[in-house]
Structure formats: structure tokens, C-alpha cells
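Closing statement on the alpha-D-glucopyranuronic acid sub-project.
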Amino acid sequence: MEEIKIMINIPENKRNVPSLLTCIDGTEVKTAQDWINKRRPEILEMLRREEYGRLPDMSDVEIKIQVTAVRQGPKIMNGRAVRKTVEVEAVRKERHFIFTFDVFIPADAKEPVPAFVEICNRGPMNCDPARENLSSFYPAETIISRGYACAAFRTHEVAPDYEEGFKTGFHRLFPDYVDNRPDDAWGTITVWAWAASRVMDYFEMEPMIDAAKVAVVGHSRGGKTALWCGAQDERFAMAISSCSGNSGDAISRGKTGESIAQILDRFPFWFAKNYQKYANNEEAMPFDQHFLIALMAPRLVYTSTKTNDSWADPVSEFESLVQADPVYQLFGLEGLEQREFSLPEQPLHNGHIGHHHKTGEHNMDDYDWDQYMDYADRHMK
Ligand code: GCU
């Protein structure tokens, strides 16, 4: 068989990040098949073991997903959406854990629609299922008006966002891990990502949602989670990160703003214990955050950042996209359309790696959502 040679245009490696295309055993990735069969699985394993942590054995966990309420009529978005309340129950050895989320589906949909899953790391005011509190963090009315369905779950309901010894929420299913926690055991980000996958389980059962066209979206810690969810769960067509910064979309080596030592000082429970090895020791990491971005290939990945978010560090956020681009080239796809740092209010929407940089503070707002939907209209719809 004739070998197809792909010329990969490797970007300049100013930060000395590990190569995506060199396997642990030193062999080079030359084709998309090499990536899929060898390099991708070893990178996924590396990020599980060294950074975010792996889930426990879930084979004895029974998961039940059921719609507990369906509402339609003038009180639900003036009749423009159907709202379904969904309960996810996980049971293990007579221990229960439940979280719920609400889904809005355009009432006038004639065929299954694409959808967004929002990982809501803010309070209920920002993702209110009753829609009394409207927030540009989750503009569900606009999403519906553009022909998408959407669902948001609250991270706090899934696993607490504070140090509590891995005892409540999802963690309560696994008391065996409380006093005996392996260095590669899951951090909270992994559990939130697991929850987003359960929303996808429901989408696969919902006849009015096109589960092949779903994006997982999150901001900041939610953005780190969205990328990690999309990396692991290949059912998602797209992952969208807003201002996820350290341990999200930003390269750690040479990063300004938040460092690994600083994130671990305040939020050690987000990660596997193994990640502690890299505090003030980034050069020792066999990976960097472009590995996380590249795990989305050949699917769509989109990141956004704000000019004043120096804690997240827009330059390092952009650099991870530049460094991930060669993996898209392996698939013969356009990844990132330019390597020069992006200018504010000039979205990059041509490639499979989308990005925008907006004037403003650390936040996810209407402008960001308009860009996400413009990009999804073009590439996912
Ligand atoms: C803190 C944390 C960041 C995180 C952010 C957020 O600032 O240091 O890593 O992204 O919270 O979730 O808003």
C-alpha cells in the first residue's frame, strides 16, 4: 500500500513544551492512525494519572437517568421552549447520590437540534432553570432562539467546590477512598466532567436532540472541566473553554499570572495528588496544556479569553492552540488559522480550533456566546 506522506508545519517551540508527536518510546507520530492508536491513548493516560486524576472503578455503580418533569406553555420562555427536568441518580452499595439539571428545547423544532451543555460553576442566579434571574453567563433564551437546545448543571450539586475530604456529593459513593487515596485518584474537575457526560447520556436518549452535534461549555474552572470532559468523552463534537487559564487552556511553562503552585495552594482537591510534583517544577512535566487541547482533534475546540484576565494569561492561552495545531494537520484539517497572537474583537473562526479574544474582564458574557454560536452555526450545525 502506498504510504501517504503528510507535511506537518511545526510551530516554533518558544516555551520548550514536550512534543505532541513524539511517543513515550521515542517513535514519531506520522499519521492520524498513529495518533489515534498510540499517542492519543498515552496522552490521555498521562493527564489522568499526573494531572486531573482517574475515576474509580464504576462497574458496580448503577446509574439511572429519568425525566421528572416536562413543562411547556406561556410560562416557559413565553412558549418558545419545552423544559425538561432530568434527574441523574448513581447508586453503589446502597449509597445514593443525585443531581438534576434542566434542558430547554426549542418548542418549534421539527427535527433533532444541536445542543450546548453548560457546566455552571456559579450560583443558581447564573443558570436559573426558572428563568427569573437572567444572566449572560447562560443566555438560554438566546440559545433557544438560535435553534439550539441547552442544559446546565450546577457543579456544586455534583461535587463540592471546597476542601471537604472527598466525602460528599459524588464522592460519598466511595468511602473506601477517603483514608486511602491513591496519588492518581480523581480530583473534583474529573467528577464535574463525569457529570457533563451524564447530560450527554440523556441527550442520546432525547429524540429532539441531535447528540452528534453537542458542545460542552464552561468558564474558568468550568472551562478546565469542559476541555477535560471533551478530551475523555469523544461523543462531544466540540469543547468550549472561556478563560480557563492555568490547568485549562494555558501553557504552564513560562506562564504569567496563576502558576501550578498557586492553583494547588488554593484548589488542591481539583486535581490528582500526583500533580503536586509539578508545583514550581513545570519543566519536569511530560506534558503541557496543549496536550489537553490536542485530545479534541479531529473534533472542534474553541477557546475565548479577555484582555484584562492576566491571572489566566491570554498569551499562554493562545500558545496552547498554536502548539496543538500540528495534530489537526495530521487529519488533513485546518486547525488554528494564524500563529500571531489574536487581536481583540477579531475572532478566528475558520479552522477546527476556534478562538476569540475580547476586551474585558474574566467572565463569560453575551459577546462570547454570540461567537460560540456563530462558530457552531458554521462548523457544527
Ligand atoms: C480562581 C482560580 C482559577 C479559576 C478561577 C475561576 O481564580 O485560581 O484557576 O479559573 O478561580 O474558576 O473563576
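DSSP finds nine helices and nine strands in the chain. With this model delivered, the sub-project is considered complete and its resources will be redirected to Aim 3.
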